[in-house]
Amino acid sequence: MATSPLEIRMAHLEGAYEQISQRLGTIEERLASVEARLEDKFARVEAELKDQFVRLEVRITRFETSVDARFTRLDQRLDGVRSELLSRTDRQFYWVITLVVLSILVPIFLRLLNP
Question: How many domains, the chain?
Fold first, then answer.
């Protein structure tokens, strides 16, 4: 049987297509492997980030608690200082009122006693 040049060319093309198909299959397998590794790494990074966010939230909560406690102590100290200042102001006010009333009443009593 004689093979025509067209049949030879077709055989070469079929061989080339088969080689291309094999190479594409290999590339597809490698891409699937790379994709699986990337997904695994992304999952690990995501888990690590979640863990770090949880730890960060715990630290923030502790910090907020600490700040709240400090503000509470500061409020208590300021309330004490405020109470003391109000008490002093009240005492000074009563002294001033007493002096004003005495400065009015003493001359009146002196005029009444010395006709």
Answer: 1
